[in-house]
Write a structure and sequence with these properties.
The chain has 475 residues and is of the alpha+beta class. It has 12 helices and 6 strands. The chain folds into 2 domains: 352 residues, Outer membrane efflux proteins (OEP) (Up-down Bundle), CATH 1.20.1600; 88 residues, no CATH class.
Length: 475
């Protein structure tokens, strides 16, 4: 039969074994900047964004080609058989001289080449402008994806540290509750406390172990998101230093951040460029009604082998010309394209307005979140000191009989919860500050470099391999 003491020992052993199962292959921990640099090369999302930008860039030379010279040509050859029934071959040089002439077989061949240079083509000019604006928009989209990668890396990295802090505080709580359980068990053995105190302590310990198992599993899982971004598995990462300054946004003015976002946010810049491209496309489609003028130079060379019986006939010709094309009626195609372009421009305009409204909202919200985080971090630090004092007072009260064991256990839980909440608020501050800079459009690798100076290489976190030992102990 399992006693309270033996069950406590079993669960303690399971937790300690699990806590010791970590990867031993990591020679050193990786910092935040190192993880980002790997993700910038390996992340498939940013890779797809770069490919999309490269594809969009080709729209400009394709549109420009309609304004540049165009050279083309063709070559032809043919075999001809000409028959003359009843005719006599009168050519002394012919091997069939004096004989009945049945026909003639000869070859025609030749080539021609034409150089065409557009002189007047208004539609093509506006198409080039539209393509240029589309490439500009694609550049902003890529920049936005690069900023998003920074945020995704920071979030994934901080989630690992957050899970580690949850695990640390849970393990500390387990150790404290276990010690409390042992003391209560000793007091019960000599008849100083009732069995209810032992049972309350045992229940608190068992619940703490369950939270520890969950924290261990969450911690192991947290590494997978980072591996998705980088294509690598990390065994050890640097922690965030306690020396990280928690300060208000600079400048400390919400309207300044909003005004900056309106001019530098990549989403707004992209939407502006897309609207510009749509408006130029309208002009291009409207120009479908206008005539075009091309200059041409055509060179021909033809050889005909059957013009007479004395040899072949060769002709060469060079033609210089101007070609005027006037679209008189195209079945309503041009008008339809204009209507379509107008609708596309209206859509781009509405998307720009939506982007501006969303950016304004997000900037204000994130600014308030950062300023709140600064206050929250200070408050959480104060709450730790208060919880520690409350725990000491409660333990003293328990010793003299004015407080019960439940009060002590609750005070312990509040202390460790306060410790995690403090660490969690620091991570929220960092992430919200990065998101604020992202929505404004100023986030860059330099921000990561500055944050990386506050990574503590002497206090790394290590990846847990397996939870199987806990399961074996609990069975």
């Amino acid at each position: 039969m399992c006693t309270v003491k033996s069950m406590s020992k079993s669960l303690t052993t399971a937790l300690l074994v699990c806590s010791g199962i970590v990867c031993n292959s990591a020679a050193y921990a990786v910092d935040l900047l190192g993880v980002y640099q790997t993700a910038a090369e390996q992340d498939p999302v940013i890779g797809a964004a770069k490919a999309a930008y490269a594809a969009t860039k080709e729209q400009l030379p394709q549109a420009r080609s309609a304004l540049l010279p165009n050279l083309g040509g063709n070559v032809s050859t043919s075999k001809n058989v000409r028959e003359f029934p009843g005719a006599i071959d009168t050519n002394p040089a012919s091997p069939t001289f004096g004989q009945s002439y049945q026909g003639q077989t000869y070859n025609d061949h030749g080539w021609n080449a034409q150089l065409r240079q557009p002189i007047v083509n208004v539609a093509s000019w506006f198409t080039v402008g539209s393509a240029s604006a589309s490439v500009e928009a694609a550049g902003y989209d890529l920049a936005a994806q690069e900023q998003d990668l920074i945020v995704r890396v920071v979030q994934a990295y901080l989630n690992i540290l957050r899970a580690q802090d949850r695990l640390d505080t849970t393990n500390a709580e387990i150790t404290a509750v276990k010690r409390q359980l042992e003391q209560v068990q000793q007091r019960f053995d000599v008849g100083l406390v009732a069995i209810t105190d032992v049972l309350e302590s045992q229940a608190a310990y068992d619940n703490a172990v369950v939270r520890g198992i969950q924290a261990e599993g969450d911690y192991a899982i947290s590494f997978e998101t980072l591996s998705t971004l980088t294509g690598q598995s990390y065994d050890s990462l640097d922690r965030l230093s306690d020396q990280l300054p928690i300060v208000d946004p600079d400048p400390y003015n919400e309207e300044t951040w909003v005004a900056t976002a309106m001019s530098t946010n990549h989403g707004i810049s992209s939407a502006n460029a897309q609207l510009k491209a749509a408006r130029r496309d309208i002009r291009a489609k409207q120009s479908g009604h206008l005539p075009t003028v091309d200059a041409t130079v055509t060179q021909t060379h033809n050889v005909t082998g059957g013009q007479n019986f004395f040899g072949t006939d060769t002709t060469e010709q060079t033609i210089y010309g101007l070609q005027l094309s006037v679209p008189l009626y195209t079945g309503g195609l041009t008008r339809s394209r204009v209507r379509q372009a107008n609708a596309t421009a209206d859509r781009a305009k509405e998307l720009l307005l939506s982007q501006q409204l969303n950016v304004t909202r997000d900037t204000r919200n994130l600014y308030k979140s950062v300023t709140t985080d600064v206050i929250r971090v200070r408050a959480r630090l104060k709450a730790i000191r208060s919880a520690q004092s409350a725990l000491e007072a409660t333990q003293t009260g328990y010793e003299v009989g004015t407080r019960n064991i439940v009060d002590v256990l609750q005070a312990q839980q509040r202390l460790y919860s306060s410790q995690f909440d403090y660490a969690d608020s620091r991570y929220n501050y960092v992430l919200n500050l990065m998101r604020l800079k992202q929505v404004v459009g100023t986030l860059s690798q330099q921000d990561l470099t500055e944050l990386n100076t506050f990574m503590d290489a002497n206090n790394p976190v290590s990846r847990v391999v397996s939870l199987r030992s806990i399961a074996d102990e609990l069975n």
